[in-house]
Each structure stands twice: as C-alpha cells, then as structure tokens.
Amino acid sequence: MKKFLLVFMVMLLALPMTAQTTVNDTKDSIEEVLLPYVTKILKAAETGATFIADETPIVLTQYILFNAFVFWIWSGIGILLIVFYKQLGQRLFCVKSETKPESVQSFREYVYLGRNKWLNSHTKGDISGEQAGYIVFKWGSVTLGLILFFVFIFDAVKATFFPKLFLVEKFLELI
C-alpha cells in the first residue's frame, strides 16, 4: 500500500507540470499563429493614421472653400433678385408697346412701367392677373433676395475671412 500511495503522490505532483507544459506550448503556438496578423493590422492602422493626419488639412481647406463658394453664390442670387426684379417682372408680365394708349378707355387697360413697357389689365381699370402677378413678383423677389442675401452673406464672410471660426461653429453644430 505504501508503494501505491507513493506512486499516486508522484503522479499527482507530475500532473500540474505536464499540464503547464501543454498550456505553454499551446500559448506559444497561438502567439506564432496570430503574430503575423496582429503585425499586419497594426501596420495598417499606423498607415491609416498617417494618411488621416496628412490629408485632414487638405480636406478641411476644400470643405471651407466649397462652402464659401456656395454661400457667395446664394448671396449673389439674392443681390440679383433685388437689383433686377423690375426687369424680370417686366419680361414675365408686360406687353411691349411703342406708343402710348390713345383713348382713355384703352389707357385704363394698361399700366405704364417705363421704357415703353405697359402692363395690360384687360379689366377696364380693375386690377388684373398680370398686374397682381407683377406686384407679387416684385415684392416677393425683393423679399426673397433680401432673405437670401442676409442669410448667406454672414456665412460667406465667415468661411472666406475667418475659416477657423467657421470650422469651430460647424464642429459645434455636430456636437
């Protein structure tokens, strides 16, 4: 019985040593298998970080220039609507006449807008659809032009002359 107990104790003591050797061998083989993949992933992450660090200033500059261009275009459209509303309205709603209407009756059917431009009312003195359209277009284009100008001119000036402030405001909008 002593021999059996002694053999059993030696086996119990040897078991953890063999198990530890097996775990270490497995650990080494896992490291050998995963090491090339981990190295490739780390190299790709480093390359991506370098690319982002190099390209970020260029992308931000292009973003600022694009927004400045768009804001200046919309401000210009607003100015064009304010300045040329009369010419646009006359082309859309007026009839061209070289002579002044002769009779009082025919004179009441036309409204003089300048430079031989007459707005025909067809209603013998009452306001017509063309006259109402011209009035709505005139005030609508001026109002829309002012709105476009004042909404976009501030962002256009910021994007053109104060790009850092423009970027900070854009980042704060995203937060």
Range of strand content: 5-15%
What's the β-strand tally?
3
* Structural class by SSE content: mainly alpha
**Element string (H = helix, E = strand):** HHEHEEHH
User: Which value, in Å, is the CA radius of gyration?
Assistant: 41 Å
Average pLDDT works out at 74
Give the end-to-end Cα distance, rounded to a whole number of Å.
Answer: 78 Å
- What would the principal axes of the Cα set say about the shape? rod-shaped
Helix content: over 70%
| Largest beta-sheet characterization | 3 strands, antiparallel
Segments where pLDDT lies below 50 for 5+ residues? 103-108
- Described by its quaternary structure, the protein is single chain
Tally of alpha and pi helices: 5
Strand order of the largest sheet: 1-3-2
